Amino acid sequence: MLSSAALRKTGSGWEFASEEALEDFVEVHLQSLLGLTVIKRQFTINEQRCDIIAVDENKRLVVLELKNGEDRYVVQQLTRYYDALLEHKPFADCVDYEQPVRLIAIAPKFHRDNFTDRKYHGLLFEFLQFAIVPDGEKLSLQLKDVDAEHIAQVQITYQQTESTDNIPNPPREFRNLLKKFIDDEQQVIWRIRERILRFDTRMQEIICSKSISYGKGKSKLCAQICVDRRAEKYYIRPSLMLWLPLSPWTDNCKKVGRMAIYNQKLNDALSLSKIDEYSYLRHWPVGSRYSASDGQVQTWNLKHYVNEISKQENESHALDFLVNLSLQKWRERL
Contacts for 116-123 with beta carbons within 8 Å, 24 or more apart? Predict the structure, then answer.
């Protein structure tokens, strides 16, 4: 189940495969866990990127910072988010800025410096400690308020991933490629690289003259990153290629091919970081080298494609879904 949480087994129990996997799960279950409604995830303001922005039932703004491990500086991070949000007051149509802002940190454990920083701070911070606990033959995510001892719990539907903690440092070619793109695009590509390299110990990062590919040898690829060949002079954009099913509207979608993610707004520099109704997938026949006629090229509206395969209307995080799908299909081909 692609919408399930990505977990991995450790010597002492279970953990989320990445911080992004934790965010994915908490976002989906935030209402049942804390009674909060998500407004925006990974919201950037004043060069500060908030994990989750939400509101409670009284329209109070809630800022959540999630950590998949201990972090000494979470109080400082939340303070910067608080300052930027109060300066600009976004989402004013659904937030009552006359009420105090709730600042929530969620982590598996808190460093003693977190408590010291909070003790002498003028703002109020909520520390919620999470754990993945056995629930009969199943698993549950448990959130415990470290002050009030209140506990919230929700069952986890999960898929197990390989334990691959030692992700290699990005090669020089990757860093040079990344410099060509705007900040939002860089963040998306960093996250995709981490997700791919954590997925399986057999995954390789393959350096070519003008691209970075991921897979097992050049014949078993799942993703490729390069510069968009159609990019206009003032808009240098990344082109993400994923090996995805070519028959999304049939039960048998085993045949895969390389597809590029594009946006029909050619003057829109936010191609990967802003998947919208203009985004689409395109597949060229093998050996065409992008010179095939329009009749030979297969094109799908990206969101329609995702909804057909996921069997969910308006599947959130369409790009994450596609990356997960390409990884799953890659493993099936090994």
Answer: 117/75, 117/76, 118/75, 121/75, 121/79, 123/78, 123/79, 123/82
Specify whether the CB–CB gap between 105 and 65 falls below 8 A: yes
Q: Which amino acid is at 146?
A: V
Would the pTM count as exceeding 0.90?
Answer: no
Query: Which position has the token pair 């991070």?
Result: 77
Highest mean pLDDT among 11-25, 37-51, 169-183: 37-51
Cα gap 256→258, rounded to integer Å: 7
Torsion of CA 53, 165, 322, 141, to 10 degrees: -50
Q: Which residues pair with 107 in a beta bridge?
A: 129
Closest CA to 109 of 81, 56, 73, 67: 67
pLDDT of residue 312: 62
The pLDDT > 90 percentage for the chain reads: 36
* Cβ–Cβ under 8 Å, residues 139 and 156: yes
Decide if pLDDT at 270 tops 50. Answer: no
